[in-house]
Each structure stands twice: as structure tokens, then as C-alpha cells.
Amino acid sequence: MKTGRFWAWVVFALGAAYFFIPLIATVEFSMRMRRGTYSFDAYQIVLGDARFQATFGYSVLAAIFTIIIGVLIVVPAAYWIRLRLPQLRPIVEFITLLPLVIPAIVIVFGYIRMYGSNSPLPFLASDRGTDLLLVIGYATLALPYMYRAVDTGLRTIDVRTLTEAAQILGAGWGTIITRVILPNVLIAVLSGAFLTFAIVIGEFTMASLLNRPAFGPYLQNIGANRAYEPAALAIIAFAITWGCMSLIQILSRFAPRSANRPN
Amino acid sequence: MTDLSLSDQTIAGKTAPPSEARALRLPTQWLGVAPFFIFAIMFLILPTLYLMLGAFQNGAGEFTLENIIALSQPTIVAAYWISIKISLASSLIGAFAGLAIAIAIVRGGLPEWIRSATLTFSGVASNFAGVPLAFAFLATLGRLGLATVILNTVFGLNIYAHGFNILSFWGLTLTYVYFQIPLMVVIIVPAIDGLKKEWGEAAATLGATQTQFWRMVVIPVIWPSFLGTVILLFANAFGAIATAYALTGSSLNIVPILLYAQIRGDVLHNPHLGYAIAFGMIVITGLANVFYIWFRTRSERWLK
After folding, report:
1. With bands split at pLDDT 50, 70 and 90, how would you rate the model's confidence at B26?
2. Residue B57 forms beta bridges with which residues?
3. How far does Cα A251 stand from its chain's mean position?
4. The CATH number, out of the four listed (1.10.3720.10, 1.10.575.10, 3.20.20.70, 1.10.10.10), of the domain defined by the range A49-260
5. For chain A, what are the domain ranges?
6. pLDDT 10s digits, A174-194
7. Which residues have C-beta within 8 Å of that of residue B193, sequence separation ≥ 6?
8. Theoretical Cys-Cys bridge with B279: which of A161, A226, B55, B262, CB 3.0 to 4.6 Å?
9. Torsional sign, CA A157, A158, A159, A165
10. Are A196 and A66 in contact (CB under 8 A)?
11. Cβ–Cβ under 8 Å, residues A251 and A189
């Protein structure tokens, strides 16, 4: 057993080295901009860059709309399947796994060919339409994660009893979903939302191929043209991902209680 | 119950009276799931089918196998081959390293905080892909990267003189492993947790050594979910483009980058060949996932 513990430490140390050296190297590299001394110049330049602010703002907005679309599609479907149509569950689970099978580049390629200016649904004919198509594409990418999060949330509450109780009190379907079910799975929905945010914020393929001024293509552009700024951006991106995951963890502590809260 | 209702309708009718009311409500039944299905059909299934059909059509819209046959030209075959090699190498390395880390933190007798810290970090690192990951590895193992410089100045080892290049097969594989290992850890830890303590005790009572316990109990139980996850990691790497593109530009000719260039500028001078490349990608990741689903159903038997 002693030797087992020794090897466990060795494996853990090797893993930690592999994962921390690139982070340390990136931090170090990002601070090397001023000759001979460490400074935060690269961060200052990046954060002060008008294109950084514009593209980051664009991607945040895109992420918010992605989350809204995701919730509007997934919550009613997951709820309805739990309540009335359990026989559809395998089909829906299969569909939600499809974005893991079909690479993002293939999905967006399909959009470009199907929804071009000459098609019956010309999303790509206008900038707003393309924005919408990008958000829709993001929603498909986030579908597996959003569905799983919401379905896990619904599993912890008694959907049927809550629905029947609300119906007895005279609630309509809109009221039941927005004021009974949604508050009860809010934590799960938020977990899915933050994960969506982490996926969408730096997404490159779709934004680039749809020619939208998003954060991912901006990152790629800086990477191709600058030396120290990319490292600073990598650290910023890592911090954002870390922030999203931490929020999910913090939220998960509240999750079990929310199921039994009498609100 | 289901057998009964199939064989004898009258009994089924008595035991399940609400089924009559259900027929009446049928149209509204579908209202809740309608947005989901409309969305999935319009933005997931139809675009994919469109490409798959396009792969079997020529410019005039007639059926042809020429596009699929054209996939056999050397540049495209080379692209598929290097993509498959990178995906396979990064998924296998990621899977074994991830499994070792998962076993170390779950069963290695390490302090509890290491387990939770590793799991948290894995959640972050598995989502830290794309362009920023490429930047991090350029800052580490690029020509001026910290690890390159330290290896050269402190250990006198010039890795670039020895043929290493971050813009190569091994460079990209090493980079992909950064999100493959954490993904493996996140997926496989629950499977290792599923190994019941009683099994170890039962094996010990029957006089099994630690090695026998691992060889005859642990490995057979974990094997399906391990293999399943390898396949998931493979598909994950196969479709990835952002990291490779930011790292190597278009100097490394992997399939997603070839498709990217084709979509942007029709570099192959045949729009339908692009469809065929996309079709090939779907076939490969699709096959990988068929295996994944098969292995998962096998592994779930033990984890109830």
C-alpha cells in the first residue's frame, strides 16, 4: 500500500507539471513585453484595444442570446418529456448527442450552403440574419450540455406533483413553466448557461466562417500578428473559463436545497 | 406489462384507462417538444443531410460517386491520415494519462483536497481549448517558449535542433492532450468511483492478491467505459480546428483545416468535393460514436 501511495504521488506530480508549466510559461511570456523587466504592458495594450472591447462585447452578447435560445428550446422539451412523453426520451437524447458527432465546421458549412442569399430562408443575406444564424449555431453546439444540465435538474424535483399542484391552483401552462418549473431548475439552467458561456466566448470556427466580428477570430488575428499579446489573451481566456467553472461549482452547492424549498 | 397489452387489448384497456384520454389530447401533446424538434431539424439535421446528399451530386444536381472517388487524391488522403493519426495519438495518450491520474486521485490514498482540486481543474482545462490553448503552447514550447529556453540554457538540450517543432504532428498532439487528459479524468472518475468497496473486500476474502484483483475485477469493469471514452476523445480531436489553425496556420494539413480552406476559398476547385470531405468527417466521427454508444451500454450494466 505504501508503494501504491508513492506512485499515486508520482502520477499526480507529473500531471500537475504537465498542466502547470504551460500556464506558468504563458504568464511569464505575457509579462516579457518590456525589455529586461516584467510588466503588465501586454495586458494594458490588449485591454485598451478598441477591437478587443468590441469583439469581446459582441461575443458576450452572442453568448447571452445563445443561452436564451437554449433555455427556450430545451426547458419545455425536457419538462414535457419528463411529464408526458417519456417514450421520446431516447430520440431526444440521441439528437442532443449529435453535435458531439458532427463537427462544428460541418454544421456551419451546412448553414452556409442551405441558408445563403438565394435560399428560401436567406439568413446570410443580412448582417442581423447572420448574427442570428451564428447564435443558432452556438445553441446547437451547447445543446448537449444544456440538455444534460436541465434534465439532471428536473430529475431532482417531482415534476408531476408540482405540475398537478399548480394546475389545481388554476395555473396555465405558461405560468407553470415560468413560475413553477423554471425557478426549481434555475440552478441547473444556470450551470448549463455558464458552460455555454465558456464554450461560446472564444469560439472560432463558426464565427470565422460566418465572418462575424467575434472574440475567437480576433484572438486568431492577434495570434498571427503579435508576439506578447496572445499570451496575455490566453491568460485572460483561461481566467474566464475558470470563472465560469467556479460559478457552476458554487451553484451546485445550492442545487439540492432548491428542490425542496417551498417557494 | 407491455407484453400483456400487446397480446391482449381488452386487459390492457382495463389496466390503463388514461390511454383513451390521451388520444384526445394528442395535438397539444407535441406542443412542448415542437420547438426542440423544429430547431433540431432545421439547424442540425437538414444542414447535415444537405451536405451528405451534396456529396453524391455533381454541379448539375445529378447523382454521382465522383466526389467520393475524388477523395482518394493524395492531398486529401494525406489530410485524413494525419488527422486520424493525431486524433488517435492524442486520444490514447490522453486516455492512459487521464486514467492514471484518475486512479491516483481516487484510489491512491492521496489527501481529499487533491481529488477535488484535480476535478475542478479538469473541468476548467477540458474546456480550455481553441485559440488560447495554442497561444499557451506557443509560449511554452515555441522557439522562444519558456520550456524551450530553460531546456536549452539549463539542461543544454536544444529541442528544436533535435527535430522537435510545435507546428508538427507531435507538437499538435502534445497540445491536444491538454484538453484530452482532463476530459478523460472528468468522465472516468465516476466509473472508478463505481467500483464497489465490497468487490475489493470480497476478492481479498477469497485470497486474491492486489494484482489479481486489478487484473480480474477492476480492468474488466472499467474497460468498456475506458474504451468508450477513448472513442469520444478521438471524435473530439478529429473535429477540432481552432487550436490547430491558431498554432500552425495552414501549414499542417489536417482535414478540418483543409475543409476550412475549401469553404473560404474553394481551394480544391470543386464545391461538391467540399461536401464529400464533410461527409467523410461525419462518417468517421459517426462510426466512432456508434462504438462509443455500444461500449457505454455495456459499461452501464456494472455501474447501477
Report:
1. low
2. B63
3. 15
4. 1.10.3720.10
5. 49-260
6. 888 888 888 888 888 988 999
7. B106
8. B55
9. negative
10. yes
11. no
Instruction: Kindly determine whether residue A245 and residue B123, on different chains, have CB atoms separated by under 8 Å.
Output: yes
CB contacts of B105 in chain A (<8 Å) are 8, 12
| Domain parsing of chain B, residue ranges | 74-300
Contact state of A92 with B263 under an 8 Å Cβ cutoff = no
**Contact yes or no for B47 and A110 at CB 8 A:** yes
DSSP element (H, E) containing A10:
helix A2-30
User: CB neighbours (10 Å) of residue B1?
Assistant: 8
Which chain B residues in 188-227 lie under 8 Å from chain A, judged by CB atoms? Answer: none
Q: B285 with A102: CB under 8 angstroms?
A: yes
Nearest C-alpha neighbor of A105 from the set A68, A140, A145:
A140
Residues 257-286 of B with CB under 8 A from A: 259-260, 263-264, 274-275, 278, 281-282, 285-286
For B279, the grid coordinates are: 461527409
> Is residue B135 left, alpha or beta, with left meaning phi > 0 and alpha meaning psi from -120 to 50?
alpha
User: Which of chain A's residues have a Cβ under 8 Å away from the Cβ of B132?
Assistant: 202, 219, 233-234, 237-238
Cα B76 to Cα A114, B63, B234, distances in angstroms: 24, 22, 19
pLDDT for the residue numbered A255:
64
Cβ–Cβ below 8 Å for B50 and A110: yes
DSSP one-letter string for B199-262 = HHHHHHHTT--HHHHIIIIIHHHHHHHHHHHHHHHHHHHHH--HHHHHHHTTSS--HHHHHHHH
Taking residue A196's Cβ as centre, other Cβ atoms within 10 Å add up to 26
Q: Where residue B296 falls among pLDDT bands split at 50, 70, 90?
A: confident
Q: Write the DSSP string, B37-67.
A: HHHHIIIIIHHHHHHHHHTTB-TTS-B-SHH
Cα torsion at A65, A68, A74, A78 (round to 10°)?
160
Measured between alpha carbons, how far is B243 from A150 in angstroms, rounded to an integer? 30
Strand locations in B77-234 (E): none
Beta bridge partners of B114: none
End-to-end CA distance of chain B: 23
Length of chain B counted residue by residue? 304
pLDDT of B301 over the 70 cut? no
**Residues with Cβ < 8 Å from A35, sequence gap 6 or more?**
none
Cell of B27: 395535438
Give me the residue from B46, B132, B140 closest to A237, CB to CB. Answer: B132
CB atoms within 10 A of CB B246: 26
Q: Is the pLDDT of residue B82 over 80?
A: yes
pLDDT (tens digit per residue) in A67-123: 999 999 999 899 889 888 888 888 998 899 888 889 999 999 999 989 988 888 888
Question: What CATH architecture applies to the domain B74-300?
Answer: Orthogonal Bundle (1.10)
Element (H, E) at A19: helix A2-30
Nearest alpha carbon to residue A88 among A98, A102, A78: A78
- The x, y and z cell numbers of residue B139, run together, are 509560449
Q: How far apart are CA B191 and CA B185, in angstroms?
A: 10
